[in-house]
Design brief:
Order of helices and strands: EHEEEEEEHEEE
Strand content: over 45%
Largest sheet: 4 strands, mixed
Mean pLDDT: 92
Pfam families: Glyoxalase
Helix content: 10-25%
Structural class: alpha+beta
Low-confidence stretches: none
Number of strands: 10
Strand order of the largest sheet: 1-4-3-2
Protein name: VOC family protein
Oligomer: single chain
Organism: Mesorhizobium captivum
Number of helices: 2
Amino acid sequence: MTPFHLAFPVRDLDETRAFYGEVLGCAIGRASATWVDFNLFGHQMSAHLRPQATEAARDGKVDGLAVPIPHFGAVLPMDEWERLAARLEARSDIDWLERPMVRFKGEPGEQATLFIRDPSGNALEFKGFRSLEQVFAH
C-alpha cells in the first residue's frame, strides 16, 4: 500500500491533537505553530490552522442517505473497523453523523461505515470490508 497525503483545515491545533491522537489513536508526527501531522492508519494527514474552518454540508447522497461533502477517512479490514467503531461508540463525546451500519448489504462492495465530525467540523468516514478486494467492486 502506498500512503496518501491530505492537508485539511482545523480551527484549533490543541483540540485537533486531542481528537486525532487520543480519540482516533493516531501517532503524532512533525508539527509547527500552524500545522501538525498525524498517521491515520498509515496515511499522512496534515492539520493546518485555519480558524475560519467551516463544517461540511450534508448534501451528498449514498445508498439513499445524506452524507457530508467533503469528507475523508480510511478504508479498513473489517476487524480493525469493528474495533474502531466499538471504541468510538463507547465514548460520549463523539459528534456522530451516521452511527455504524452496513451499506449495500448482500451486494458487491458491501461495507460497514460510520461518519463522525472532528472538533473543527471536518467530516470523516471510516469503512470496513471483509475483503479489501471488494473496495472497488461494482
